[in-house]
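Anyone? Bumping this.
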Amino acid sequence: AQSVTQLGSHVSVSEGALVLLRCNYSSSVPPYLFWYVQYPNQGLQLLLKYTTGATLVKGINGFEAEFKKSETSFHLTKPSAHMSDAAEYFCAVSNPTGAQKLVFGQGTRLTINP
Amino acid sequence: GAVVSQHPSWVICKSGTSVKIECRSLDFQATTMFWYRQFPKQSLMLMATSNEGSKATYEQGVEKDKFLINHASLTLSTLTVTSAHPEDSSFYICSARGGQGNYGYTFGSGTRLTVV
């Protein structure tokens, strides 16, 4: 079975500051990892994903994440927060084979302070 | 890019009635679609996985007779909430696999269901 733990249900940073959202996963097979963003009353938008290859993955809106197998982590970062980054962020894991369904973490609400 | 259209975006219905939610992949074929339920300020809970032309696979604890899922074509899956009750009020989101390379999942914009 796979699982995802997002440390911190709520993160608050100042505009222009570094954003760091933490995600740790558990998987018995090499996982595929994803970060999604959700704005109120909307669906999920893919920020980035890791499947194979380079462990540092760059996504949209200046976000990036690094897959660290030894730490079973896939933390999301952005060097400089913007007000428009305020949203709910979900880390997710899937098994590359089989049903390939996504398993989500509990989410982290990011607040940007002016 | 890959687009999944979900309708309606919100619906209010009376207790005891049924509501159908549609999920369409507009520019790609989705052999697999997923239906999620999201409670306020919580994560997404997978309800079922549907494959085109076959019966949906429901997650443990999800009533298949209450949440009817049909995936009749490669671009359309529907979720019907039958005999809805207030406790069925929630945000329902569909997702289709494909459209972003082999390992992408594209999400619909969600449906806010309120049962009164």
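Late reply, but here is one note on the structure posted above: The two ends of chain A are 41 Å apart (CA to CA).
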